Amino acid sequence: MGSQKTVGERLWAFAIWAVVIFFIINVVALVAAVVVNSFGTRWFNAWLPAGFTTRWYASAWQEFQLDEVLIVTFEVVGAVVLLSGLLGVPAAYALARRNFPGKRLILLMFLLPMMIPPITFGIPLATVLYQLHLGGSMSGVILANLVPTVPFVVLVMIPFIEQIDPRIEAAARVFGAGTGALFLRILIPLLAPGILAALLLVLVRTIAMFELTFFTAGPGSQTLVVALYYAVYAAGVRAGQSIDAMAVVYMVTTLVWLLIALRFVDPTQIVTRAKREAAH
Amino acid sequence: MTEPAAAEAPERLPLRVRLKLYELDGVTLLVLPAVLFVAALFVYPFVYGFVLSFQPKAGAWFANYAKFFSDPFLYDTIAATFRLAIPATLINVLISVPVAMRVRRMRYRRLLTTILVIPITLGTVLIAEGLLTYLGPQGWFNRTLVLFGFEKVRLIHNYTGVMLSLILSGFPFTFLLTLSYITGIDPSLEQAASTLGASARARFWHILMPLLAQGLAINLCLSFVQTFSVFPSAVLLGAPAGDTRVVSIAAYQAAYEQYDNSMASAIAMIMGFSQLLVVLLILAGRNLFYRGAVGAGKG
User: Least packed by Cβ within 10 Å: which of A94, B103, B200, B232?
Assistant: First the structure.
């Protein structure tokens, strides 16, 4: 804005950029350290490993049964995405279009599971799921993961639905469309970008959701991130490179979906769209 | 049923119409599945956990809480958590403001925000694993320190490691949140102040800060609550038996190592109420400092 900058302002700007660049260098180096180590033969007392190999990927695939873990991960994530869409979008529609008594209470009820960290509600939730004999199974993991994602879809979708002109729906009603036909023929096509964005964010969050899966997963229902935690926790049992190979598989799985998601959403949306609701 | 009622009060509207007056109809019912789901798997477990925490394995109804607050091995976890959460939150939120101020008009904002979303997406488990390699005694960070003639520092399996992981995973989150609040403020307000001769500093303290106070308070709350519930990095990157034995570790051990669900619920409730307490303090502090000046932002 101001055309003349004092020395102080320049120093201040320089300091801020230095902080940002230092931060980014560390993030990049942290990711690079994992990738380099996963391809290294022996890495001791040097800047880089002595040689490069891909054999750790084969051993990680076998040791950690990554094919099974990946299948479980995609089954869990797929079910969570589908169910949170099916539960969340209709609820968002009702909340966007109707002003009924108790609406504020319902909105608060949807806000809390997103603001309260999973660690806090995860233990009572896991206790209840184990009592219902759902703990330690796929369905338990899916149900637990839905707790923050259903409210997330609701709160993300409300502003999208509010943008649609209600007269379009009124016109469809005049021509005899019921609520079902209204959804299938009018709303879903119009809301497709919003639904896609919301569900992609659910997908990325669910792949990385550690706490809730950790509390409810049994031996056959571990997702990738939980398997990675156990591998790091028991470090020393397996070769470090093997664990890092698994970490790379996890990173690739997450980042591919992140890149797809970023084609449809602004990065700030990943934290803000839903959190923004908290301000009201 | 309806006929005699209609005969008694002929001017009374049918139930359907009366409900419609409150905007309760078929469309409103669409909210029910989601509400029932959240009620069953969020509200009910909380209430259940609360009740369960007062049904200890042995002793009086408050025995779990009495045990927690009399055993230093347990109550020290609260202090350990606060020692991590308060500095991490303050660092993340305070740095996010000047950085977001710079970045908001930057050309490559989208690129920067994309880079910063990566640590959020990867999550704390991967950051912990990466930092173990990167910050370890043979890692690149210590090698760089030695290269510039410094001493090696111990950065993992202690308090510092957990703090660094909280900054790495927490800063992008607070930054993106602050950025969205700052870009939500109408730029013409600042331009008007600039036209009237306000310096950059005056514009910041008198225009932006009051408008930002609401958002910063919420940002402080969310960051605090997240850092307070640190778990994977405190185990993997910290000293889980020592000074990073945080309250979530105590809750986990009660539930999955001692199989005492009642005690675990009590610890989860203590964790939840500590978070609630700090959130209320932050919100009260906001009202104390910025009475009247808030509420004009885009929100």
Answer: B200
Please report whether residue A1 resides in a domain.
no
B142 Rama class: left (phi>0) / alpha (psi -120 to 50) / beta: alpha
> Which of A109, A173, A158 shows the shortest CA–CA distance to A273?
A158
Chain B residues touching residue A19 (CB < 8 angstroms): 95, 99
Domain that holds residue B40: 17-53
Is residue B12 assigned to a domain?
no
Cα(A26)–Cα(A205) distance, integer angstroms: 23
- Which residues in chain B are closer than 8 Å to A112, comparing Cβ atoms? 42
Query: Same domain for B142 and B26?
Result: no
Distance CA B133, CA A31 (A): 10
User: b/e for A235-253, b at 16 or more Cβ within 10 A?
Assistant: eeebebbbbbbbbbbbbeb
Contact: A270, B176; criterion CB under 8 Å? yes
Same structural domain for residues A95 and A176? yes
B177 vs A9, A275, A280: nearest CB: A275
Q: Which of B53, B69, B100 is the last residue of a domain?
A: B53
Domain boundary, last residue among A38, A53, A68:
A53
Q: Do residue B126 and residue A251 have CB atoms under 8 angstroms apart? A: yes
Check residue B105 and give its pLDDT.
Answer: 78
Statement: residue B59 has pLDDT above 80: yes
Q: Look up the pTM and report it.
A: 0.87
Q: Tokens at residue B202, please?
A: 């005056």
Confidence (pLDDT) at B7: 46
Amino acid (1-letter code) at residue A261: A
Closest-CA distance, A60 to chain B, in angstroms, reads 15
**Does position B290 have pLDDT exceeding 80, yes or no?**
no
Same domain for B64 and B49, yes or no, is no
Extract the tokens encoding A56. 């750790």
The position carrying tokens 């809750």 is: B251
Flag whether B9 is in a domain: no
Query: CB-based contacts of A77: which residues, under 8 Å, 6+ apart?
Result: A203, A206, A207, A223
With CB atoms and an 8 Å threshold, state whether A99 touches B98: no
User: In which region does residue A238 sit, left (phi positive, over 0), alpha (psi from -120 to 50) or beta (all else)?
Assistant: beta
Instruction: Give ipTM to 2 decimals.
Output: 0.88
- The residue count of chain A comes to 280
* Mutation target vs B (from A34, A36, A120; most B CBs, 10 A cutoff): A120
Q: Tens digits of per-residue pLDDT, A245-255?
A: 999 999 999 99
Total structural domains within chain A: 2
Residues A28 and A149 in one domain: no
Same domain, A183 and A132: yes
> Residue B214 sits in a domain of what CATH number?
1.10.3720.10
Query: Number of residue pairs across A and B with CB atoms under 8 Å?
Result: 266
Which residue segment(s) compose the domain that A49 sits in?
A: 7-53
Instruction: Find the residue in A nearest to B227 (Cα).
Output: A117
